[in-house]
Design goal:
There is one protein chain. It is built from seven helices and nine strands; from the N terminus they run E-E-E-H-E-H-E-H-E-H-E-E-H-H-E-H. The chain is of the alpha/beta class. Helix 3 runs antiparallel to helix 5. The relative contact order is 0.18. The strands form two sheets. Strands 5-4-1-6-8-7-9 form a seven-stranded mixed sheet, with helices on both faces. It has a two-stranded antiparallel ribbon with strand order 2-3. 32% of the residues lie in helices and 22% in strands. The protein has one domain: Spore Coat Polysaccharide Biosynthesis Protein SpsA, Chain A. One of its GO terms (biological process) is bis(molybdopterin guanine dinucleotide)molybdenum biosynthetic process.
Length: 200
């Protein structure tokens, strides 16, 4: 699994609801959010990329290659996925956002299990009720399809998914693990939850 997979952390958003602060670098429970994500889901030795459009030196200090979107005007998370597929050298890429600091530690393993069981092109994490469309496993060979989709002006991830064999990896009863931070209030709630190891 480690040898055939690259982990890509998306940290390229504008964070408009966080007063424009770079979410991945916001400190929660003593560490930047991006470090929580890395420590929870990344197996030792797995190739890792960070996709960031700002503060690239700060992200690079974590010890991983950093790349920015190649498309102008912040076209959304698919632009970051495109860069991840371009830069990865492995058959599979697992994508996670930088603002989900409580992801399940077995996330990558279970995404792979679902991919193998269903021979899917795309595997999306699901908490039993909702899909989490930017927490997923992709085949790197999907890059030309994604490039064509974005070049056509499309941006909706769910529309692109439907062009491929899609599977859902279900984490029933673990909705809290997929909570993301979009506002200062949510940041405070997550700080307390992480400090106390409590559910949100």
């Amino acid at each position: 699994m480690k040898a055939d997979t690259t982990l890509a952390i998306l940290a390229g958003g504008r964070a408009s609801r966080m007063d424009g602060k770079d979410k991945g670098l916001i400190t929660v429970a003593g560490r930047p959010m991006v470090q929580h994500v890395l420590s929870r889901v990344r197996p030792e030795g797995m190739a890792t990329l960070i996709i960031a459009n700002r503060n690239q030196d700060a992200y690079r200090a974590l010890g991983f290659p950093v790349f920015g979107d190649e498309r102008a005007d912040y076209p959304g998370p698919m632009a970051g996925m495109e860069v991840a597929l371009q830069q990865a050298e492995t058959p599979f890429v697992v994508v996670c956002p930088c603002d989900t600091p409580r992801l399940p530690p077995d996330l990558i393993e279970r995404l792979h299990q679902t991919q193998q069981a269903q021979q899917a092109d795309v595997v999306v994490a699901n908490d039993g009720e909702w899909d989490h469309p930017v927490i997923l496993l992709l085949k790197r060979e999907l890059l030309p399809s994604m490039q064509a989709f974005l070049s056509s002006g499309e941006r909706k991830i769910a529309v692109w998914y439907r062009q491929h064999t899609l599977a859902r990896c279900t984490f029933s009863g673990q909705a809290n693990d997929f909570a993301n931070i979009n506002t200062p209030e949510q940041c405070q709630q997550m700080e307390q939850a992480l400090a106390n190891n409590d559910p949100l």
